[in-house]
Design a protein that fits this description.
Blueprint (H helix, E strand, L loop, with lengths): L1 H11 L3 H10 L4 H15 L5 H18 L7 H8 L4 H14 L11 H8 L4 H14 L2 H6 L1 H7 L5 H17 L4 H10 L6 H17 L8 H10 L3 H17 L2 H16 L3 H14 L4 H15 L4 H14 L4 H6 L1 H7 L5 H12 L7 H13 L3 H20 L5 H12 L7 H14 L4 H12 L11 H13 L7 H8 L9 H23 L20 E2 L2 E2 H16 L7 H17 L5 H4 L6 H13 L29 H4 L27 H13 L7 H12 L11 H11 L51 H12 L1 H4 L10 H16 L8 H17 L5 H4 L1
Antiparallel strand pairs: 1-2
Main location: Golgi
Organism: Arabidopsis thaliana x Arabidopsis arenosa
Pfam families: Adaptin_N (PF01602)
Length: 862
């Protein structure tokens, strides 16, 4: 019966071609067809016939690849199909395994024996399938169990098998570093193979290995050099160049040795890919070789003037690599770089932009910014914002070190806000505030630029510019004493179109209006002449006498305008806006009727003037920049352990953490969950008793809690009315233990930096101690350390095994290097009569010394 079912399944089973045709015919309802096909596959894959099972698995792999169908449930069926003796079924099974298996697949270990069997097969195509599968899904266990088979295949006489075995070595070494002891010698021997396919494969493997740890492969430099000189395969040469680019960084003497062959390649090659790799190798690793560098720059110029946009991009990319060390190479091609900004290819334009910004310094920042702003005005939105972002990044680097004229830079920021496609409002607004807090000499220009932004109603409708308007409003209020027209600023802050702003921005507008009002009233009530320009008088023909340069009519007009503008906001739904509006209106209501007394009364100090003086003192504290690491600089109190576990919390607060049990309940059980609560009241009462008692000595745990409450009383819930009074008294006695305010920065924490010999004196820019730069993380530990140690061990022992080949002239360079390595190894051998413990310690120190010292290849470099 089972055999008849299998026969029927084979006769009427749909193939992969039928599935594809059915999917293409589904104009609507494709998901329904896929669901129906999956039901069919689930039924077919359970068949005992391997042919039926393999076709079902093939269809499932197709649906998983193109439509994201989950096929993890078919893992065991894939293992069954792999065990088939038919090559077509085996290929389908291996494809499904490489597509769906991962380290967490439960049946992964079931394929170990099957892989071993196929790796030992006489059919090279079956071996190829197994090797490809191992390279995709190889785990630590698979790499360990199959290392011997891979070692055997590295010496196979079949080119297809050997080159794939070489490729698998990468995965095996990565998962099982001890495999280096077995396979590395044979892998190195393949560097001398005459077959181009095998040589290409082994060079590709070493190209990947040197990327992780180039120092370990320095002893193989003679072999790589031979390939560089003798090979005519461009792809092999490209990989060898990548290897030398890494090796030359750790062994500078190599640069002089390989410079001539690379220059010869640049002169004679016609392949653009090989030529670019030669250029990149020179500009990145051989930049100290003057002859090679000049030739590379000449070749870069050919790329820049070529009509092919791909070559033009590669030329710009090569210039960006050489720019940090040799800016002259970029300056020689300045015209080509500027011309590339108008290219149609967006990648070429971006690369040219980044390259142009690398040339920016304090002498040419104005010119380059002017050029880029012109390009931004006529560019598409994406490139326009890239230009703005590049200018902002370059000018703000290292606390604006290339900016000498901050008045010019603030004007530039204002121009950026008016570019039609500008979407960098967040960055521009941040720099406006940052310059205001850092550069005191620039605050006059900052207020002028902010006023120009605030009075422009066209900017209010662009939501990307709201951060800029927020920063302008804050600066106008914070530094209002530098303003010539405070009345216009208040009028701009209260214009009707501000309803287009977000509530958070409107709250800043209202607060800045409050600052303008307080400043104006302070000038009006002041007994001396104001230090800055007075308010713009609405009319000078009214005949009213001025007080301190401001007439009664002008100050009354300002107060009435603010009152009228904020009345409508006192009932808004946003609580922040509503609260700030009512605060200002309340202040106006308190002093509005007292303003006229300044003209009629002779008293030098009135109730209104005292209120205004108080608010002026509130806003008089100057704000400074805050470093991103400010929180880390707050000193920790003695005895506070933030990184320790809280296992001893029960011991410290045991009596306060006990649950409250109802007295009517049994002593052995709680009455209900409602009766269990944290004894906060008991904790508060106990704290108060311990704080007030001076005769008795409290326990250490209770004293710590009391001390914590004294320091951080703000975060405790008050239990009685006299809590604040007690805390205040305690604070007076413990002033030395108080934390400094988090946002208070002393003068000592700033470090001014000036540059000499400049045509215009650069204003003082406030810099924070070690806070302006990005916080760098410590280098992570090298994950490839076991592999590197294994490679170094294999190379050190290689010379001794090859000493018999010294007479071979083709290996003369290699034998000299290995002889030196062998001599170094002999010196570390144990001497007769030494104690074993002394030998172990000396061997350990020799290993550490050999790891620390650079690998020497003196014979090759002579």
């Amino acid at each position: 019966m089972a055999s008849s079912n299998s026969l029927m399944d084979n006769l009427f089973q749909r193939s992969l071609e039928d599935l594809i045709k059915g999917l293409r015919l589904q104009l609507l309802g494709e998901s329904f067809f896929i669901s129906k096909s999956l039901e069919e596959i689930r039924r077919e894959i359970k068949s005992t016939d391997l042919s039926t099972k393999s076709i079902a698995l093939q269809k499932l792999s197709y649906l998983a690849a193109l439509h994201g169908v989950d096929m993890s449930w078919a893992a065991f069926h894939a293992v069954e199909v792999v065990s088939s003796s038919r090559f077509s079924d085996k290929r389908i099974g291996y494809h499904a395994i490489t597509q769906s298996f991962n380290d967490q697949t439960p049946v992964l270990l079931l394929i170990t024996n099957q892989l071993r069997k196929d790796l030992n097969s006489s059919n090279e195509y079956e071996v190829s399938l197994a090797l490809e599968c191992l390279s995709r899904i190889g785990t630590d266990d698979l790499a360990r169990d199959l290392t011997s088979e891979v070692f055997t295949l590295l010496g196979s006489s079949k080119v297809l098998v050997r080159k794939k075995a070489i490729g698998v070595v990468l995965r095996v070494f990565d998962k099982y570093p001890d495999a280096v002891k077995v396979c590395f010698k044979r892998l190195v021997e393949n560097l001398e193979s005459s077959d181009p396919q095998i040589l290409s494969a082994v060079v590709g493997v070493f190209c990947e290995l040197t990327t992780k740890d180039p120092r370990s492969y320095l002893p193989l430099a003679p072999e790589f050099y031979k390939i560089l000189v003798d090979s005519r395969n461009n792809w092999d040469l490209i990989k060898v160049l990548k290897i030398f680019a890494k090796l030359a960084l750790v062994e500078p003497r190599l640069a002089k040795k390989v410079a001539d062959p690379i220059c010869e390649l640049m002169r004679r090659t016609v392949g653009k890919s090989l030529l670019f790799e030669c250029i990149r190798t020179v500009v990145s690793s051989l930049s100290d070789q003057e002859t090679a560098l000049k030739l590379a720059v000449a070749k870069i110029r050919e790329f820049l003037v070529d009509d092919d946009r791909n070559l033009k991009y590669l030329g710009l990319h090569a210039l960006s690599i050489v720019a940090p060390k040799h800016l002259w190479a970029v300056l020689e091609n300045k015209e080509a770089v500027v011309k590339a900004l108008s290219d149609e290819d967006p990648n070429v334009k971006l690369e040219a932009l980044h390259l142009l910004m690398s040339m920016v310094n304090e002498d040419n920042v104005s010119e380059i910014s002017r050029i880029l702003m012109n390009y931004a005005l006529k560019s598409d939105p994406f490139f326009c914002n890239e230009i703005i972002a590049s200018i902002l990044l370059a000018c703000s680097r290292n606390s604006y070190e290339i900016i000498v004229d901050f008045d010019w830079y603030l004007s530039l920021l204002g121009e950026m806000a008016r570019i039609p496609h500008c979407q960098r409002g967040q960055e521009i607004g941040h720099q406006l505030i940052d310059i205001g807090t850092r550069v005191k000499d620039a605050r006059l220009e900052l207020v002028r630029v902010s006023r120009a932004l605030l009075i422009d109603p066209a900017l209010l409708g662009n939501q990307f510019l709201h951060p800029i308007l927020s920063a302008a409003a804050w600066a106008s209020g914070e530094y209002v004493e530098f303003s010539k027209t405070p009345y216009e600023i208040a009028e701009a802050l209260l214009q009707p179109r501000t309803s287009l702003l977000a509530p958070s921005v409107r709250a800043i507008y209202i607060h800045s209006t409050f600052k303008v009002l307080v400043f104006s009233l302070a000038v009006y009530f002041s007994a001396q002449e104001p230090t800055s320009s007075p308010l713009v008088e609405e009319s000078t023909s009214s005949g009213s006498s001025p007080v301190n340069g401001i007439t009664y009519k002008s100050i009354s007009s300002l107060v009435n305008m603010i009152e009228l503008g904020l009345c409508s906001l006192s009932g808004t739904l946003d609580v922040e806006v509503q609260e700030r509006a009512k605060n200002v209106l309340g202040f106006i209501g308190m002093i509005k009727h007292k303003i006229a007394e300044k003209v009629t009364t002779q008293e030098s100090e009135t109730e209104a003037s005292r209120a205004v003086a108080f608010m002026e003192d509130v806003f008089s504290e100057e704000l400074g920049p805050v470093t991103s690491t400010a929180q880390e600089k707050v000193p920790l109190p003695d005895g506070l352990e933030l990184k320790e576990s809280l296992e001893d919390l029960q011991e410290i607060c045991g009596e306060f953490l006990k649950p409250v049990v109802d007295s009517n309940s049994n002593s052995n059980s709680f009455s209900s969950s409602e009766n269990i609560s944290f004894s906060v009241a008991k904790l508060r009462i106990s704290d108060q008793k311990e704080a007030s008692s001076s005769s008795s000595h409290p326990p250490e745990s209770a004293s710590l809690l009391a001390e914590h409450r004294k320091r951080h009383g703000l975060y405790y819930l008050s239990s009685q009315k006299n809590d604040d009074h007690n805390d205040n008294n305690g604070d007076n006695n413990n002033t030395l233990n108080e934390y400094p305010p988090a946002n208070e920065i002393s003068v000592d924490s700033f470090n001014t930096k000036k540059k000499m010999n400049q045509s215009k004196q650069r204003p003082v820019v406030v810099q924070l101690d070690e806070g302006d730069g990005l916080k760098t993380k410590p280098d992570a530990s090298n994950n490839d350390e076991p592999l590197s140690r294994a490679i170094q061990t294999a190379l050190m022992g290689k010379g001794k095994e090859k000493e018999r080949e010294k007479d071979n002239p083709e290996r003369d360079l290699d034998s000299r290097i290995k002889g030196r390595s062998s001599g170094r190894e002999k010196k570390t051998k144990k001497k007769n009569g030494e104690k074993s413990s002394k030998h172990r310690s000396r061997r350990r120190s020799d290993k550490e010394a050999s790891a620390a010292e650079p690998v020497e290849i003196p014979d090759f470099l002579l």
